[in-house]
Design brief:
The complex is a heterodimer of chains A (291) and B (320). Chain A is mostly helical. Chain A has helices at residues 2-32, 39-55, 60-87, 92-113, 139-161, 163-173, 175-180, 185-211, 217-232, 237-257, 266-277, and strands at residues 129-132, 135-138. In chain B, helix 7 (154-177) crosses helix 8 (179-189). Classes of the chains: A mainly alpha (291), B mainly alpha (320).
């Protein structure tokens, strides 16, 4: 029993990181109609950026903040201006292909231009474990849960309670109606790209100590983000959270009780089951098809 | 350009390839055979992507299933002509089973489902050591001999693969010209209209996907026979990505798109690897990076792929 609780707790922590990446992914889809296949690389790049700032002497917290700023410019604004804006008018598929190309390009540039090795990454939390009634929980898991939880709650508050946040939701629900109501749609969409960039940096900060910084570390986290988003419901922000945490927990449980070799397959099986029985996702609402 | 001229150019280029191969170095013959093998898979993928309009990111998995089934069956002594349909049908059936849940919903779901499927297949290849040999793979796969003629030599096997590729391409061409194939294009261009005309969207898309998978399976059989040793590496999902990009870069939905695209993903990097020109050596490490950037640029300026350049000029002239 102790094992199971431990697995669930650490699974929730891993799942929370998936959820952060999935959240950005869902927001991009809702507000801008963008499916970003380079989402994993959006986590990998900040990991290397933070390592760079650490290498030039900045402490971890400062590196994190600096990377957030750089990511907002490059992965937020730059990505939108250079790739999304010229392509979005051609429809979803060319954009998907372009982000696939971007993903290959970014990975190969890091590999050829910097390093193909895995680099260790400092944890933001102290090492060691906390014993809660006989169950050992690592500080890293607790820290991850608290930080991810705070960010998610903060984001929900921003989306639901502030004027800007509500305007962003309006854009996501119905772009044309939002424009008629006088909402600056372009600016709201830009905000979504900026939020996605910051979420990616946070995910990088939390995941890299265990995944290590490597050019292909984004493959796995990117896939988990897609699956989490769909399992929970592509058009629901809360869905990404549920999907992420569900994958995190089930991976841990399957890895421990069934076979660690097939841990990576859990997300796919869950995804296939969801699209067979509830295609709109666990929390999603069925979308009406546009004719 | 009329149809006769087109046929003439096609036949001429096939003859040129055959003549070049006859006088080429041993390693170049191998490379050309490899190109033909991958082309079988990308031709199939073009059916799924270009004609049925579905994103598939699992072609390497079907390629791998074909290769592993072939490796196991050929080593057990099953004749090549029997292995071919077994692998093709295996991939066809798996394609149906995977496509069924994914194709009931929106198009990008198939992309995710096939991507995850590829990851899973790769795990099975790596972990089920009893069946697949794990990371050590399966070695000593025999080359085929038909009716007493052995295709063991590199040139003989090249011609065997080359002719098989032509037959496969001809079959696909016939399929696309049949009323059946016209329905594929109809549902890609306007699914709702096609449905209102009585085309069963799900059934046709599913079939296109499964046939595309079967082509990859056939390619896999030749691959296993060509390299004579298989391990999970070549069937990683990154191969699926490059195969998809090859189809798109060449021009998806254009019959000869994969011919161009596969040159870019298979022949070019290998030729660069063997080059002695110093500035080209730099490209060896940077090839994929340049390729990725080129794909992004291509999508921005020429979303129809390389073969759509001609149309681009035509439409500009009309616009004037």
């Amino acid at each position: 029993m102790g094992d199971l609780i431990h697995l669930i707790l650490s699974g929730t922590a891993t799942g929370a990181i998936y959820a952060l990446a999935a959240l950005g992914f869902t927001l991009l889809w809702q507000a801008a109609g963008v499916i970003n296949f380079a989402q994993g690389e959006f986590v990998m790049l900040p990991a290397f950026a933070m390592l760079f700032f650490i290498a030039v002497g900045a402490p971890l917290w400062l590196s994190f903040l600096l990377t957030c700023a750089v990511a907002m410019v490059v992965l937020g604004y730059g990505f939108k201006r250079v790739i999304v804006d010229p392509l979005i008018k051609h429809g979803v598929i060319p954009l998907v292909i372009a982000t696939l190309g971007l993903s290959i390009a970014v990975k190969s540039i890091v590999r050829a231009g910097y390093s193909a090795e895995a680099h260790p990454f400092p944890s933001a939390f102290p090492a060691g474990q906390l014993s809660l009634g006989g169950i050992a929980v690592s500080y890293a898991d607790i820290g991850t849960l608290v930080l991810a939880g705070l960010i998610v709650i903060g984001l929900q508050m921003f989306l639901n309670k502030t004027v800007t946040g509500r305007a962003m939701q309006a854009v996501a629900q119905n772009t044309d109606a939002a424009r008629v109501l006088g909402i600056d749609v372009k600016r709201m969409v830009l905000y979504v790209f900026l939020i996605n960039a910051v979420l990616s940096v946070v995910a990088a900060l939390l995941v890299t100590p265990t995944y290590l910084a490597k050019f292909d570390m984004g493959d796995s986290i990117g896939q988990k983000a897609f699956f989490a988003a769909i399992i929970g419901g592509f058009n629901q922000t809360r869905g990404a959270l549920l999907g992420g945490v569900l994958i995190g927990i089930l991976e841990n449980v399957v890895g421990f009780y069934v076979s660690p070799a097939y841990k990576e397959g859990v997300a796919l099986v869950l995804f296939l089951a969801v699209i067979l029985f509830r295609p709109e996702g666990l929390l999603g609402k069925a979308e009406e098809r546009k004719v | 350009m009329n149809a006769q001229m087109k046929t003439g150019i096609l036949v001429a280029s096939l003859v040129v390839v055959a003549v070049v191969a006859s006088f080429a170095k041993r390693s170049d013959v191998y490379l050309l055979t490899l190109y033909c093998v991958y082309l079988m898979a990308t031709f199939g993928l073009n059916l799924t992507v270009g004609y049925a309009g579905q994103m598939s990111l699992g072609q390497a998995a079907f390629f791998g299933i074909g290769a592993y089934v072939a490796a196991i069956a050929l080593k057990a002594g099953v004749p090549f002509l029997l292995v071919l349909p077994i692998s093709a049908i295996a991939c066809f059936v798996v394609g149906l089973a995977l496509g069924f849940p994914a194709l009931r919903v929106q198009h990008h779901y198939l992309a995710f489902a096939t991507l995850g499927f590829n990851v899973l297949v790769y795990l099975v290849m790596r972990n089920e050591e009893k069946l697949t040999g794990g990371t050590f793979g399966i070695s000593g796969i025999p080359r085929p001999s038909l009716f007493g003629v052995s295709f063991d030599g590199p040139l003989a096997f090249f011609f065997f693969t080359f002719v098989s590729l032509i037959i496969l391409a001809f079959f696909l061409w016939w399929l696309l010209r049949s009323p059946w194939g016209r329905a594929f294009a109809a549902l890609r261009d306007n699914p709702i209209r096609a449905e209102s005309l009585g085309v069963n969207i799900t059934a046709y898309t599913l079939l296109a996907f499964a046939i595309g998978a079967a082509c990859a399976g056939v390619g896999g059989v030749y691959y296993a026979s060509l390299v004579e040793f298989i391990e999970p590496g070549p069937f990683h999902f990154s191969t699926s990505l490059t195969m998809l990009l090859a189809v798109i870069v060449g021009g998806s939905g254009r019959f000869f798109g994969p011919v161009i695209g596969t040159i870019i993903i298979i022949l070019l990097p290998e030729l660069l690897r063997s080059t002695n020109v110093s500035w080209l050596k730099f490209m060896q490490t940077w090839y994929l990076a340049v390729f990725g950037v080129a794909v992004v640029a291509l999508m921005i300026w020429l979303p129809g792929g390389i073969l759509s350049i001609g149309d681009r000029f035509k439409s500009k002239e009309v616009a004037k």
